[in-house]
C-alpha cells in the first residue's frame, strides 16, 4: 500500500473491492492477449471442459492488479487528507507463484483481497524495500478464483541522511535562520 | 468423447520434453502501453513520459502484466492454438528482468520443461513451459514457468 515501507504492518489485510466480468470484456481481453477458443467464442467454448465461455486467467489477474492500484491511490488520498505525505510504490520485480483455481464466467463477480505477508529492505536498490503480498480472488459463491504471491518495491522513509544534510545546507543560506544554525553549531 | 474443436490438434502424447517453441516478435508501441496501462495499471510511470523518466524505470515502459500478456499471446499463436489446450493452471517464478520500453521488439523462446499426466484427471496431461523472453538487444525481459492442461488422446495409456 502507499504507506512508507516502515509503516506497513505484515499480516494486515486490505479488501480491494470487486469486479463483475461481462462476456464482452472477456472476449475483448482474450482477443488481444489469449485468443484460445474457450476465451473468445461462446459457441465453440461449449465443447471445452469449461462448457462455456471463461475469462483468461491473465485477464482476472490484470483486473486484480488494477484493483490494487486503485486501493494504493485511495490510500494516498486518505493520507494526504490527513496532512501526511504518502509513501512511494515502485515497479514489481516479479511473482513467486500464481495458481488459477476456479474459472470466471460472464456475470461472475470477483472480489480481491491483499495480505502483506512479509517485508525486507532491498539488497539491490538502496533506499527501497521489498514487500511480499498475497492476493486472493474469490467469486460470489466464495470459491477461490486465484491466489498469487507477489513482490513489490516500496520506498524507505528513513533512508534520508543525504537529503537532511542537503536541507541543512540550504537552510544555512537563509538569512537569520542560517545565522542561528551557525551560532548553534 | 472427442472434442471437435481440438481433434486434429497436437495432444499430450505428441509433445516432448526439450521441444523449443519460437515465439516470433512483437513491437510494443507507446499507444499499446498507454491503452493497457489506462485499463489495468494506471501508475504515472506507465502513462506519462515525464513521470516515467523520473521513476526507477527511466522512461515510458510497458506494465509488467502487459509484457506477460504479450508473451502469452505469442505462445498462443505459435503453440497453444495448435495444441489441444484446456487452459492454464498458473505460473511460478515470474521475473521482470528489464523494462520493455516504447519501440522495443520482444520475442524469444519457450521450452517444454516437463510433461506429466494429471493424477486426478486421466484425460489430461500437464505441460510445463519455461519462458525466455528477450528484447531486440537480446537482453532478457521476462522469465517464468507456466503450467498448462492438455487433452490426452488416450486417457489410459498401455503400461
Question: What does the secondary structure layout of this molecule look like, with pairings?
Answer:
The complex is a heterodimer of chains A (185) and B (159).
Chain A: E1 13-20, H1 23-33, H2 37-40, H3 42-45, H4 57-81, E2 94-100, E3 109-121, E4 128-138, E5 144-155, H5 161-172, H6 177-184
Antiparallel strand pairs in A: 1-3, 2-5, 3-4, 4-5
Chain B: E1 20-27, H1 30-40, H2 44-47, H3 49-54, H4 64-78, E2 85-96, E3 105-117, E4 124-134, E5 140-151
Please describe the structure with a list of short key phrases separated by commas or semicolons.
heterodimer, A: 185 residues, alpha+beta, Thiol Ester Dehydrase, Chain A, 5-stranded antiparallel beta sheet, 6 helices, 35% helix, B: 159 residues, 4 helices, 23% helix
Q: How would you explain this protein's 3D organization?
A:
The complex is a heterodimer of chains A (185) and B (159). Chain A has a 5-stranded antiparallel sheet, with helices on one face. Chain A is elongated, with a radius of gyration of 23 Å. Chain A is an alpha+beta fold and 185 residues long. The model of chain A has no long low-confidence stretch (mean pLDDT 89). Helix content of chain A is 35%, strand content 28%. Chain A has helices spanning 23-33, 37-40, 42-45, 57-81, 161-172, 177-184, and strands at residues 13-20, 94-100, 109-121, 128-138, 144-155. Chain A has one domain (5-154): Roll (Thiol Ester Dehydrase, Chain A), CATH 3.10.129.10. By secondary structure, chain B is an alpha+beta fold. Chain B has a single domain, classed as Hotdog Thioesterase (Thiol Ester Dehydrase, Chain A). Helices cover 23% and strands 35% of the residues of chain B. Chain B has 4 helices and 5 strands; from the N terminus they run E-H-H-H-H-E-E-E-E. Chain B has helices at 30-40, 44-47, 49-54, 64-78, and strands at 20-27, 85-96, 105-117, 124-134, 140-151. Chain B has a 5-stranded antiparallel sheet with strand order 1-3-4-5-2. The longest helix of chain B has 15 residues, at 64-78. The two termini of chain B are 22 Å apart. The A-B interface holds A 32-38, 44, 47-50, 54, 56-58, 61-63, 65-66, 69, 89-100, 103, 125, 128, 146, 153 and B 3-6, 39-43, 45, 55-57, 63-65, 68-70, 72-73, 76-77, 80-81, 85-96, 99, 144. Strand 2 (94-100) of chain A pairs antiparallel with strand 2 of chain B.
